[in-house]
Amino acid sequence: MATGSTNNATSLFKRKEIIGRGKFGVVYKAYHVKTQQVYAIKVLNLDNTEDEVEDIRKEIQFLSSLKQAPNITHYYGSYLNDTKLWVIMEYCAGGSLRTLLRPGVIEEKYIGVIMREILVALVSIHRDNVIHRDIKAANILISNNGSVKLCDFGVAAQLSQSMLKRQTMAGTPYWMAPEVIMEGVYYDTKVDIWSLGITAYEIATGNPPYCHMEAIRAMQMITKSKPPRLEGREYSQPLKEFIALCLDEDPRERPSAEDLSKSKLIKQERGTSTSVLRELITRYLLFREKNEHYKQEEEQNQAKRKSNSSLDANMWGSSNENSQDEIDIKWDFDSLSSKEYILENDINVEAIPEEADWIKYSPQEVNYAYPEEDYYNSNKPYFPYYQGSTIGRTFNNNNNTCLLYTSDAADDSLRV
Q: Which range (117-131, 242-256, 342-356, 378-392) has the least confidence?
């Protein structure tokens, strides 16, 4: 699918509902009129600052160059309409891994499968000298069939023969490798390995290290403290070793994605199908439907978003689609019913992992790593229920001054 005019695009595609929002625009679910193939279409506003437009151009450039890479969301082409750019992407029904953490932490057998699939993506993109630079649970998509995809290349970087290392600070603070934060220090693809280790830690414990600290303080801790380690008898040695390998403070000693694929954690799940992740999706759906307070919050937020849908229709850039102003807005796995999902996927209900009280700190403390995760207490002590979508948002107030380098991860991910 090549770049073309919007006149062609409006006749080729029919939009359905909004499935995401980012700082640059809106993401729609749409289908090709002739083939009925479903796509995700980012409608990006180019009427931004020159630096923001350059960020958009770079992300499209990376996605275009990675068309053959496995386990990432794929790019098919783009169309220009005045100051709006339509970016045609692969549609992956599902939600973020961060969403699947809401009912509790995730067991090791699932962590091994998820890490294995992300490593497949990293082996491919690192071979092409691309650094993702923003790996975290909010940027990992689990589709409804259980497949795993790495999303959001908004701050990715390309290495070249003339520049085999980078120096720019980029990413989200809590997942940054020490060398990314330290001034004047060059880095390469090994920063993704560090972020992967922090993500494994996040999945196992519920949050990344230092999440109770503001971003600037957390970055100081990352550079001055010993690398985090997974402690406790509840965690197996292969998982502890995997995280320790990733979180080596010397990037030269950190294994490559290819070497990590040979670790014990990955080897023990080598024969496990990604379809096992459907059990995590089922757990989340049952959790969501069981907790009426949470469900009511979701419905209220969806109503608010729907009331603004006419404004989003203008982002589409078409004047002949007024009849579609009242469009549904669906986020993450919200369009799924637990009963239907269990029946359609033949889920063994007895295999579904239990919910868990996993917060390691007082519920009164702010989770700075995910500041948009507003939660309130249930009748379970110290257990948070989240409202709205899961977003890793740029810090833009108080002493958190990393807004130039962090990204609206979950907003920009192409998911429903």
A: 378-392
Kindly report the pTM of this predicted structure: 0.79
**Per-residue three-class SS string for the chain:** CCCEEHHHHHHHEEEEEEEEECCCEEEEEEEECCCCCEEEEEEEECCCCHHHHHHHHHHHHHHHHCCCCCCECCEEEEEEECCEEEEEEECCCEEEHHHHCCCCCCCHHHHHHHHHHHHHHHHHHHHCCEECCCCCHHHEEEECCCCEEECCCCCCEECCCCCCCECCCCCCHHHCCHHHHCCCCCECCHHHHHHHHHHHHHHHHCCCCCCCCCHHHHHHHHHHCCCCCCCCCCCCHHHHHHHHHHCCCCCCCCCCHHHHCCCHHHHCCCCCCHHHHHHHHHHHHHHHHHCHHHHHHHHHHHHHHHHCHHHHHHHHCCCCCHHHCCCCECCCCCCCCHHHHHHHCCCCHHHCCCCCCCCCCCCCCCCCCCCCCCEEECCCCCCEEECCCCCCCCCCCCCCCCCCCCCCHHHHCCCC
- Please tell me the distance from the alpha carbon of residue 333 to that of residue 92, in angstroms, as a whole number: 11
Query: How many whole angstroms separate alpha carbon 377 and alpha carbon 384?
Result: 5
pLDDT in tens, 257-268: 999 999 999 999
Highest mean pLDDT among 79-83, 163-167, 186-190: 186-190
Amino acid at 341: Y
Are 331 and 21 within 8 A, CB to CB? no
Name the token pair of 163: 């520049």
Q: What is the pLDDT of residues 222-252, one digit of tens each?
A: 999 999 999 999 999 999 999 999 999 999 9
Cβ neighbours, 10 Å, residue 70: 14
Residue positions annotated with a catalytic role: 134
8 Å CB contact between 54 and 42: no
Q: What percent of the chain clears pLDDT 90, i.e. is strictly above it?
A: 43
Write the CB contacts of 400 (distance below 8 Å, at least 6 apart in sequence): 214, 215, 216, 368
Residues 6+ apart with CB under 8 A from 56: 24, 44, 46, 85
